[in-house]
Specification:
single chain; 447 residues; alpha+beta; 5-stranded mixed beta sheet; 9 helices; 11 strands; rod-shaped
Length: 447
């Protein structure tokens, strides 16, 4: 509406300016002819013929007013030096050299636009007025056309805006609906479904976040499934051995030596089960974030010496030389004694288990960059390059061919990694390859 009113006002101003320019131009042109004619003897027919010659150049009716014009007998007498022209505002102002447009009804009652200009002859004003009368409906028709064009443009613009809004809404809702469907499928157990990214905007980022979440959920569930499957397998093996031994002790007549050996094997399996349950319990606490981190001040060198002494019988039984170095000065760290003991015991125990008879395991302690460093190097069977990235995974056994010969459930390094990460420490395992030994470096923040 505002734009329409502005356009209407501009059209009216332009149209009125056009009428004023047109009547002034005709007044100059006609003034040259009238000044050269004998107006005193000109008949009304001659004057009408003169006006008729210009009728095709205008959109309305032309009227020429001359002094003492016989066609205007009702004109008022001259006043203040003015000829006896009709007392009309456009004529009065035109005589003074001013051109205006007046809107009023004509003799037939039709809305008409009137304007007038004083005749000119060679740039000089002469006594004579030219009036132009144009029906107002011509201006109204232009105004209506402009309103129609504006309305049509508004309809088209509104249609395009609605189409753009619908397209924009669909571009937003479509990926949201896809995201909803994906969430429902994920809730129903379809963990493999992923959302195709539709762009680089926020919706695309949400899709990436959803895909990442779905992948994490899938990985977690797969890990939990594998964990449960491997745990049940690891529990089933010693339980089967226990059942066989206890049934033999219960029902079969055994000599004293065999019975004693069976009882020792039962005791070993019970210890194995106890260690396995303990490892699983600690892992579950770290996974759930419920593990209580200790802040005891521990001398890592002294702890390593104690554990080495405890593992010496195992090293002797496997004919492996276990050497400890760098324990001549206190190496203080903050940790839980049980957690730190699990870390060192598992690392030393792994080195001993995977080092064949005649090999060596060297544990060296020291300080580096504000941390206590523990280096454990062995001359054992080493680790293949393709197995190195997986050694901290639960139940992963690098040497699958001999996994049944080497005791353990494959939880030791996974437990070590959980404890090390929880305390903000670092661990690194390096091996030159199969048969070339393994080096483990543990960096624990110093107290």
């Amino acid at each position: 509406l505002f734009a329409g009113r502005q356009i209407e006002s501009a059209l009216r101003a332009d149209y009125e300016q056009h009428l004023r320019d047109q009547v002034r131009l005709l007044a100059r042109t006609m003034g040259d002819q009238v000044q050269g004619a004998d107006l005193d003897t000109a008949t009304p027919a001659a004057i009408d013929a003169l006006l008729q010659s210009y009728a095709g150049q205008v959109e309305g009716a032309l009227t020429l007013y001359l002094p003492d014009d016989p066609r205007t007998p009702d004109a008022p007498p001259a006043a203040r030096g003015r000829p006896n022209f009709p007392d009309l505002p456009e004529l009065t102002l035109a005589f003074d050299g001013e051109t205006v447009v007046v809107h009023r009804a004509d003799s037939a009652g039709q809305d008409t636009l009137y304007t007038a200009a004083r005749l000119e002859y060679r740039g000089e004003l002469i006594t004579g007025l030219l009036q132009l009368a144009v029906p107002a409906h011509q201006l109204q028709a232009q105004v209506l056309r402009s309103w129609g064009a504006l309305a049509l443009g508004s309809v088209l613009l509104t249609t395009l805006s609605l189409a753009a809004a619908l397209w924009s809404a669909r571009s937003i809702t479509r990926p949201l609906l896809t995201l909803r469907d994906a969430a429902l499928r994920l809730a129903q157990g379809d963990l493999s479904f992923r959302i195709a990214r539709s762009g680089q905007d926020e919706i695309g980022q949400v899709a990436d976040a959803f895909n990442g979440m779905a992948q994490e959920v899938q990985n977690m569930l797969e890990e939990q499934t594998a964990f449960a499957r491997n745990t049940s397998h690891e529990l089933r093996t010693p339980l089967t051995a226990l059942r066989l031994r206890t049934e033999a002790l219960r029902y079969d007549p055994l000599d004293a030596e065999t019975a004693r050996r069976y009882i020792e094997e039962v005791d070993e399996e019970i210890v194995h089960l106890s260690n396995l349950v303990g490892d699983v319990t600690i892992l579950s606490r770290f996974d759930a974030g419920r593990a209580e981190l200790g802040q005891d001040e521990i001398d890592l060198g002294r702890l390593a010496a104690v554990l080495s002494a405890q593992l010496e019988p195992l090293a002797h039984a496997r004919q492996v030389e276990l050497t400890l170095a760098g324990c001549d000065q206190p190496l203080l760290v903050h940790a839980g004694l049980s957690h730190l003991s699990v870390v060192l015991r598992n690392l030393l125990d792994n080195a001993l288990k995977y080092t064949p008879a005649g090999g060596k395991v060297v544990c060296t302690l020291g300080q580096r960059d504000g941390a206590v460093e523990v280096d454990i190097q062995d001359t054992g069977q080493g680790i293949a390059a393709e197995d190195l990235p997986h050694i901290f995974e639960r139940f992963y056994r690098a040497d699958k061919a001999h996994s049944d010969e080497i005791p353990g459930a494959g939880l030791g390094l996974a437990l070590v990694k959980s404890i090390v990460d929880a305390y903000g420490a670092q661990i690194r395992v390096v091996s030159a390859g199969v048969g070339r030994g393994t080096a483990v470096t543990l960096l624990w923040p110093a107290a």
